[in-house]
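Q: Okay, next protein. This is Calcium-binding protein from Nocardioides antri. I've checked the sequence twice, so it should be correct. Can you predict the 3D structure?
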Amino acid sequence: MRFLVLTLVSVSLGVVPVQLHSPAAAYGGATCAGLPVTIDLNDPDHPRVHRPRSDVVLGTPEGEWIGAGRGDDVVCAGGGNDFLIGSRGDDVLRGGPGTDGVSYRQSVRPVRVDLAVTRPQRTGVGVDTLVGVEEVSGSRTQPNDIRGNAERNRITGGDAADVLVGRGEDDYVSDWEQADAGNDDDDDLLRGGDGDDYLYAGGGDDLMYGGAGSDLLIADFGIDVLYGGSGVDILEAWGRATDSEPDRIDGGAEPDFLAAASGPQLYDGGPGSDIIDFAGFGFAGATIDLAVDGPQDTNVAGIDEFVSVEGVYGSSGPDTILGDDGPNFLSGEGGADEIDGRGGTDQCEVEPTDSVAGCEEFL
């Protein structure tokens, strides 16, 4: 991917020295959104500096970053996967054949974007028109309200309190971008919508909804609430032993996979056969009793509570895994484990070193 950064766009990729020129006619007869092009990135001899008021910019067939200037600009991406940088002024930002995005990362104002809206909308940076755009990066420092459309979207927030909604298709929704220096400690709302979505929330007390489809939800430190929704979901929320309240991880309908993590947690599998997995704790050795009604000390993850959980994967160490009166799936996953299915028809995955009772089927 090439990086083309135009004058008056303040980004870390580099800034061309300011050389403002007077308005001129279009070069080579090229058009963008039906308008004569004033900056053609396909022509190496073409002026590549913004005029004070407005420009019409045409991208190349390769993927690149293209910045709008301070005026009311029209920017058309070419082929490839492009990122259009929103700036001051009322801009028209048009994607091309590839997967294209818009970045408001440098905005010092709250950003609001709805990709389902193709008419002019107030983004907080200006009154912008976004067409053919699948990805949005919000402000790094200010709150963002970013909503996707029926396409596959990538939506990224920042360090402030964000509302990020994926809507249709398989979406990537995150309140944190890897290139940023820090992590988000504010409280965010993330929603996947339809499709198989990936949702990631950083620090802070976050609320996450997977929606329809098979979703992956991951929350970092904080007191978080995760709802998988319909579909076969994977949910994980990391906490701290000092948290005043537990994270709540609710699988929703269908069988779900709940990843055990540190800190107090309330795991509610919901309808379907749901499994809790302690593999992330290495050789520590966990203690899990599915018959306990209320919080219990799991020895590795803290004080956890299990509701409507039917299956357990243990750690690599010596685990104690006890079922309830219903049908369970129990696996020690290495180590000399104590496994007891108790009542119901239980399936057990065991090793020769395990102590086993109450299992009707062995895997």
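A: Here is a summary of the prediction. The two ends are 49 Å apart (CA to CA). Confidence is low (pLDDT under 50) at residues 1-27.
Q: Noted. On to the next one.
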